[in-house]
Amino acid sequence: MAGPDAQRIGAVIPNLLRRVEQQHQTLFAVQARWDRLVGKRLAAHTKPVSLRHGRLVVVVDHPGDGFALSYQRSQLLERLQTATNGKVQEIVIRPGTVNRETRNVSATKRGRFADQHGGKRVT
Question: How many H-runs (helices) and E-runs (strands) does the chain carry?
Fold first, then answer.
């Protein structure tokens, strides 16, 4: 027996899915613009991989690239805040492996993905 605050799962899921989609949509938009935000050389060795609660996690495959990204962190954060309407509040830099095969998703694939998810295109 459910209490007075219990909601049907069918009423909760649409709101949850909408929030998840918005979160990922912002990350995909950042990934699509990454070359322009940090420059081609740095973009080749870095990748934004997660965005949660305003915190953008960026993986770097070399310590020097992490230093370079850290050096321009304040300017990059300003650009990211402008590009995402303030949804990015912090940049976290972590060592890792940047998969070059999946780093650059073509516009066609992004469009197909968007077409499958409500027609919203990520640009």
Answer: 6, 3
Task: Quick: pLDDT tens for 10-47.
Answer: 788 888 888 878 768 999 999 999 999 999 999 999 99
Contact 45, 61 (CB under 8 A): yes
Give domain limits for the chain. 37-100
**Amino acid identity for residue 118 in this structure:** G
pTM beyond 0.70: no
Contact criterion met (CB below 8 Å) for 118 and 21: yes
CA distance 116 to 30: 20
Outline where DSSP puts E strands in 1-123: 46-52, 55-60, 90-95
User: Taking the CA atoms of the chain, what radius of gyration do you get in angstroms?
Assistant: 17
